[in-house]
Amino acid sequence: MVEASTAAERFATAVARGPDLDLAEAALLIALEEYPTLSIPAYLEKLDDMALEARDRIRPDAPVDDRIDSLNAYVFDALGFKGNAEDYYDPRNSFLNEVIDRRLGLPITLSLVYLEVARRVGVPAHGIGLPGHFIVGAGDGPERILIDPYHGGRRVTHADCARIVAGVAGDPVPLREEHFAPVGKPQFLYRMLSNLKFVYLQGEASDKALRVIDKMRILEPASWIDVRDRGIVLHRLGRDPDARRELRRYLASVPDAEDRPAVEATLAEIDTILQLYR
Asked: What dihedral angle (degrees, nearest 10) is formed by the CA atoms of 19, 120, 193, 227?
């Protein structure tokens, strides 16, 4: 069994590898705190096994378009990976081990499975982080195909993506070419953690939210939103001196923050509590 502190240290070490960061391993390290007996090599081997099966279905000399079709048929039809529309906010959707076992996940975790299998079979692919939704770009240059793993690996156009994003946001969101740029590994992990942070904050699982935020700070140390959220979570946990320090840092660094009145109200509440214990 792995202690939470050890899991966090291993995650930090993995992230520090820079270009050599193994995305699947790092994603499994995120899950390790929730599943302390998790065998990371076993799940990496499961991805290897998927790739071996997929390779038998893909002609290496086939055009990229045909190889993508074969890969999609394997991942989404044969294996049955799909989006968990019935319980989107189930935290298991954010843990790669659970996604592999249950064949259910979020857009980003399903994209991760797809990317890991694609990489192993030599199909060029990368993640694309649209606002509120995550897809995959498969192929290179003008041959690039946009794939939506959450919706069964269907091919999508830019117009389809705009409709999907509008459905998530509730209003039309203009999509520019930069929205379709490949997502780097640290940004990929940060977005995975953002989903998990939201679930834990909504469920008031403050101890778990704090561990997630600390990982996000490793990836994006300049994110003042995470400093604010860390202060809020520390307040929920009764660690008010630490909470006050973090919230003051946030306001000092973002003086024109839109949520300044709410944060100042929380600081006043913390000050009242701390006065009682002087």
From this structure: 0
pTM: predicted TM-score of the whole model, two decimal places:
0.94
Quickly tell me which residue has 């944060």 as its tokens. Answer: 263
Q: Which residues have a Cβ under 8 Å from the Cβ of 103 and sit 6 or more positions away?
A: 79, 80, 81, 82
Q: Which residue carries 């906010």 as its tokens?
A: 89
As a dihedral over the C-alpha atoms of residue 70, residue 75, residue 80, residue 85, rounded to 10 degrees, the angle is: -120
Give the C-alpha distances (Å, rounded to integers) separating 247 from 99, 103, 196, 254, 262. 35, 40, 21, 10, 11
**How many separate helices (H) and strands (E) can be counted in the chain?**
12, 6
Phi, psi of 81 (to 5 degrees): -65, 135
- Cα angle, residue 213 at apex, residues 209 and 216 outer, rounded to 5°: 145
CA-based end-to-end distance of the chain: 40
Check if the beta carbon of residue 150 is closer than 8 Å to that of residue 127: no
User: Residue 3's pLDDT is what?
Assistant: 67
Residues 208, 214, 219, 225: what is their CA dihedral angle, to the nearest 10 degrees? 90
Residue 242's Cβ-side half-sphere holds a number of Cα atoms within 13 Å equal to 12
Measuring CA to CA, which residue among 188, 189, 186, 213 is closest to residue 199? 213
pLDDT > 70? residue 1: no
pLDDT of residue 121: 95
Helix, strand, coil percentages, rounded to 5, for the chain: 65, 10, 25
How is residue 269 written in tokens? 């509440």
pLDDT of 31: 96
